[in-house]
Amino acid sequence: MRPATTTQAEHGELGPTLDAAALAAFRGSFRGELVPPPDGAYEDARRVWNAAIDKRPALIARCSGAVDVVRAVDFAREHELVLAVRGGGHNVAGLGTCDGGMIIDLSAMRGVSVDLVRRTARVRAGATWGDVDHETQAFGLATTGGLVSSTGVAGFTLGGGFGWLMRKHGLACDNLLAADVITAGGRILRASADENTDLYWGLRGGGGNFGIVTSFEFRLHPVGPLVTAGAIFFPAEAAGDLLRFYREWVEVIPDELTTVVNLATAPAVPFLPEEAHGKRVVVVSGCHAGSAEEGAEAFRPLKEFRAPLADVIGPMPYPDMQRLVDGQWGSGLHNYFKSSWLERLDDAAIETLLHAHAQAASPETKIQLYHFGGAVARVPRDETAFGRRDASFLLNVAARWSEPAESDVHIGWASELHEGMAPFAAGGVYVNFLGEEGHDRVRAAYGERTYERLAELKRAYDPTNLLRVNQNIPPVSTEQGP
């Protein structure tokens, strides 16, 4: 191997500079676009969704297809470059970028094709869930996708992937039928229930540790075109009673109904009373993936709980539900997440959440409770690499703010709430919500048995840990401590 970079000391620049001859040779074999600094497109190309992440790669390789990915992997390996892979760029930890290395950018690979006979969709790795819904809903079909339409399919699915259809149809990874994968050695493989089955198991929840997926094949389900969905808003004063009602209600709701609670700040939107704008609120959002009559009946107890500030639950196109909160999760803000699974939502846990909600320092910040169960919980634990299926709730403390100087305040608030909820935690964390929290937290995301199996798989497919800019699982032979 030969380094393709020179040092900062030699050039007086931030990070390495690629050798011109090596770069020219690479460019000659690459069909997409190579973006090095100070190319005019570089500043936009290096940015990711989380504004708290500000890294400067030496090269961005915008791939046009699978062969470009092979060329880029080979180049990174041969020249000992740190390698990051970016699909949608929404990862909160900023794992789609790096300092001084190379980004394999898949965002131009956005094609989606639907097979109506088999009820499947083939999705290229740069697609977003908005791209998928646009194609599949034309035929009244869908699969479990992200709760924000601009979320990338790739990272979402590889980490598990929960969304509005999960209690009826399972996680995104449960609907993954096959994947085309570029390994760290530059091989092109297909992983499915019939081919490279060990890799197929690991891709369903194990993240981007084992290869770069260039296309996914998903199982589709009849959904819509209208679903009963939306959100209902209550003042913060009702939050305690609502959460106590909610924990009982979700015990009896049908699998067709998936819900999430947000302790948030009311946005200035027309359907909310003007006097509520900027005030603390509790919001229950949900989607029923069945008939209109069944959906109305499923939501009825929530609608009868008490008079809300606003009720926008009703029949709507499924893609509209997928886009419902897009405006609340745009790029450009600083983000810090702390997440944990919860076994229960008892009174002490509720009081902890309410106290933190009152102390939140940013109107963009949210405390989220996702309800699981249903089809998610019925998949056998060892069938996929997804870490946790038996917990009732996933807590995500999502701090979001605009001023970098305020970072310590918001991070401190989120960390304090996370620590305060520890007595109610079920152990582990959803891997896609992990920040830079260390090796032990990655292990905890999977549990010991699954983690050890993933480490063995990593040794088989990436023994040198080339693909390490992720929630990393080092090859078993290089494990450092327990």
Main beta sheet, described?
A: 8 strands, antiparallel
CATH architecture classification name of the largest domain: 3-Layer(aba) Sandwich
CATH-defined topology of the largest domain: Vanillyl-alcohol Oxidase, Chain A, domain 3
- Helical content stands at 25-40%
* Number of structural units classed as domains: 3
Mean pLDDT: 93
Estimate the strand proportion.
15-25%
- The outline comes out as globular
Number of strands: 21
- CATH top level label of the largest domain: Alpha Beta
What's the alpha carbon Rg, rounded to whole Å? Answer: 22 Å
Structural class given helices, strands, pairing?
Answer: alpha+beta
So what's the oligomer here? single chain
Regions with little confidence, pLDDT below 50 for 5+ residues: 1-15
Number of helices: 16
Intertermini distance: 31 Å
Structural descriptors:
Vanillyl-alcohol Oxidase, Chain A, domain 3, single chain, eight-stranded antiparallel beta sheet, Uridine Diphospho-n-acetylenolpyruvylglucosamine Reductase, domain 3, 23% strand, alpha+beta, Uridine Diphospho-n-acetylenolpyruvylglucosamine Reductase, domain 2, five-stranded antiparallel beta sheet, 16 helices
Secondary structure: elements and pairs:
Blueprint: E1 5-6, H1 8-11, E2 17-18, H2 20-28, E3 33-35, H3 42-46, E4 59-62, H4 66-78, E5 83-86, E6 102-105, E7 112-115, E8 120-124, H5 129-136, E9 141-142, H6 153-158, H7 166-169, E10 176-182, E11 188-192, H8 197-203, E12 212-219, E13 221-222, E14 226-235, H9 239-249, E15 257-265, E16 280-288, H10 292-303, E17 310-311, E18 314-317, H11 318-322, E19 334-342, H12 347-359, E20 366-371, H13 375-378, E21 393-401, H14 407-420, H15 439-446, H16 448-461
